[in-house]
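Worked example 3. Consider a protein that binds 4'-deoxy-4'-aminopyridoxal-5'-phosphate.
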Amino acid sequence: MKVYLDGKFVDSEQATISVFDHGLLYGDGIFEGIRLYGGNVFRLEEHLERLEYSAKAIMLELPLSRQELSWATCETCRQNGLTDAYIRLVVTRGVGDLGLAPWLCPKPSLFIIASKIALYPKEHYENGLAIVTVPTRRINPAALPPTIKSLNYLNNILGKIEARQFGALEAIMLNDQGYVAECTADNVFIVQKGEMFTPPSSQGALRGITRSTIFDLARELGITIREGNLTRHDLWCADECFLTGSGAEVIPTVKLDGRQIGNGKPGPITRKILEAFRERVLVDGTRI
Ligand code: PMP
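Given these inputs, the predicted complex is written out as structure tokens:
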């Protein structure tokens, strides 16, 4: 496997980063998780725009322009002969000393990995996923804005560990006020009386690229969609629920904390959205 690392394509065994890199020492860096579908890098421009906003928010100067990043991303796929893949684009603060100071890190490190991804088992897309609410709360946006896709994922990892302890693959994380924020690596949507709702980023949700695709698809399908504060009660009483993410795509969710959501089966609106999403990923984006 060839990995893009700071301007070169190197074998994955040679793709190494310094132990003084602040991405490793402090989680000081940002990333994107992007999908390649049938030679189409899905919404690459939107991912690169989010990366630029993440960089701006942590005052990190990206080492490449939008065009150069786009080329490097596509070329990593081409070099590995991939037409379907999960792409991980990471920019770290780079090498510095053992103190926090990011201004002592003269050069960010940038690497891009394109590889296969293990999705949720197929049966969950057909029958729906059972998830749980975990005790770990999503970080307050005033402490770390969830809109920054940063290398600091320990909050989500604690949630993921708890989900596993409860035998679930994904979990609802509440914010410190008790509203639904998102899942450990996915956004959450509900359908209630034919309308769709998802928490706003101000409640602790990442502005997911899949999430924004759902807004577009819903509008095109004539389904009302809104951002709104959601409680667990809203999920308990929802007609339908589904999760979205570049890795998860659109996954129906039929149980929360052992309670059935709706009739316990993926609902008609979720199915419609999933179908539209599967078509959209092949055409909306950048051809490699
Ligand atoms: N929330 C979190 C915490 C995530 O890490 C992700 C990405 N896996 C998402 C939501 C979904 O975002 P996207 O659709 O851009 O992949």
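Take a moment to read the result before moving on. The mean pLDDT is 97. The CA atoms of residues 39 and 82 lie 8 Å apart.
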